[in-house]
Write a structure and sequence with these properties.
- The strands form 3 sheets. This protein has a 4-stranded antiparallel sheet, covered by helices on one side. Strands 2-3-4-8 form a 4-stranded antiparallel sheet, sandwiched between helices.
- A hairpin with a 3-residue loop joins strand 3 and strand 4.
- It contains 7 helices and 10 strands.
- With 275 residues, it is an alpha+beta fold.
- The protein has 2 domains: 128 residues, N-terminal domain of MutM-like DNA repair proteins (Alpha-Beta Barrel); 126 residues, Helicase, Ruva Protein, domain 3 (Orthogonal Bundle), CATH 1.10.8.
Length: 275
């Protein structure tokens, strides 16, 4: 699943391509994962101007000048791709937006797990609140105290599954949770209530460091992820534990990376420095 760095990469690219552009035409090929009917969807968006592209957690937000926002969650295999007007339509295309720039925006999804919801822009905060989405880790307002306060609300929960829940911090998934906890020297099964301040501070620092580095490398293409131009991210060679089962730990230089299942997700860690 594309996580914060991957979605932020796409957001930055779409911002350059879409903001100020006018939607000349909208073609709905598969409307099953849209929250309004195809005709209504076209009626609301055709002729509108894109005034902003933002991100919340793992969701992309395309803001239109008529007061509506498209909230797009790519889930596992969703893609938002900028293409030339002459490129063919793929078998997994859901929607095509034709722009006055001569380009098109394709929303595709191979496994059809993703969704697009048209929501009134002034109702977005209500939507995210109802989804239980926590604070953004890269905002200045997200401090170690912010993280600690949330972790201590759930003292019996295991730290890695708690990070994946999105309540304490938004946008972190399986890849970056493993990387952050290894950086901090915290075992994935450590209970949140057992973490001392020093470890919470280290987790917080790891979030800032690793997520920012991954964004600079346009994310991690461990599976189906590509950016808005169809290119793979370049952060995978810099991953320290994820996908490294059987390899020597790059942090302590002694332990061997192991993998086990935790809350239904493959979990990588070093048993030597993540005790």
């Amino acid at each position: 699943m594309p996580e914060l760095p991957e979605v932020e990469t796409i957001r930055r690219q779409l911002q350059k391509e879409l903001v100020g552009a006018k939607i000349l035409a909208v073609k709905v090929i598969n409307g099953k994962k849209i929250n309004v009917g195809a005709r209504e969807f076209v009626r609301l968006l055709k002729g509108t101007k894109v005034i902003g592209v933002s991100r919340r957690a793992k969701m992309l937000l395309i803001n239109f000048g008529n007061g509506w926002t498209a909230v797009i969650h790519l889930i596992m295999t969703g893609r938002l791709l900028i293409k030339s007007a002459s490129q063919e339509v793929g078998s997994h295309t859901f929607v095509i937006f034709s722009l006055n720039t001569g380009k098109k925006l394709f929303w595709e999804d191979i496994r059809t797990f993703g969704y697009l919801k048209l929501i009134k822009t002034n109702k977005l905060e209500d939507f995210f609140r109802n989804q239980g989405i926590g604070p953004e880790p890269l905002q200045a307002s997200f401090t170690p105290k912010t993280l600690a306060a949330c972790l201590r609300r759930f003292p019996k929960k295991l730290v890695k599954p708690l990070l994946l829940e999105q309540r304490c911090v938004a946008g972190i998934g399986n890849i970056y949770a493993a990387e952050i906890l290894s950086y901090a020297g915290v075992h994935p099964k450590r209970r949140a209530g057992e973490l001392p301040d020093a470890k919470i501070n280290k987790i917080h620092a790891g979030m800032k460091k690793i997520l920012n580095e991954a964004i600079l490398r346009r994310g991690s293409s461990t599976d189906n992820y590509v950016d808005a131009y169809g290119n793979s991210g370049e952060f995978v060679p810099r991953l320290k534990v994820y996908g490294k089962e059987g390899e020597k730990c790059l942090y302590c230089k002694k332990g061997i990376i192991k993998k086990f299942s935790l809350a239904g997700r493959g979990t990588y860690f070093c048993p030597t420095h993540q005790k």
